[in-house]
Design goal:
This protein is mostly beta strands. The protein has no helices and 11 strands. Strands 2, 4, 5, 6, 9, 10 and 11 form a 7-stranded mixed β-sheet that branches. The chain has a 4-stranded antiparallel β-sheet with strand order 1-3-8-7, with no helix packed on it. A hairpin with a 4-residue loop joins strand 7 and strand 8. It starts with a strand and ends with a strand.
Length: 119
């Protein structure tokens, strides 16, 4: 059974930076494309960034140029570096496997990590 453990969220001022981590267990990270998703208050979960097995990346329009997704297959960990944070980035952030059809493990979500951008 896949387990996902996100961490690194915090309260940060606009313009600040955070680095989120997601430790994946129960499977080998190298076998999967991975994504970071977020759920803003009162809104649906959305894809923020994805990284393929070879390391190609894609980003939502609202975070392009500010966020960077990366992976460490040895540590079984996916990262999301977030710079120039805006109040609209406030959300609970989750990681999951990525496919063109949606999250790979839709029945297995971690607890998420809260990011709040506010002055």
């Amino acid at each position: 059974q896949v387990q996902l453990a996100e961490s690194g969220g915090a309260l940060v001022q606009p313009g600040g930076s955070l680095r989120l981590s997601c430790v994946v267990s129960g499977t080998s990270l190298s076998r999967h494309a991975m994504g970071w998703y977020r759920q803003p208050p009162g809104a649906q979960r959305e894809l923020v960034a994805a990284i393929t097995r070879p390391g190609s990346t894609k980003y939502g329009d609202s975070v392009k140029g500010r966020f960077t997704i990366s992976r460490d297959n040895v540590q079984n960990t996916v990262y999301l570096q977030m710079n120039s944070l805006k109040p609209e980035d406030t959300a609970v952030y989750y990681c999951n496997g990525y496919s063109d059809y949606g999250p790979l493990w839709d029945d297995y979500w971690g607890q998420g990590t809260q990011v709040t951008v506010s002055s």
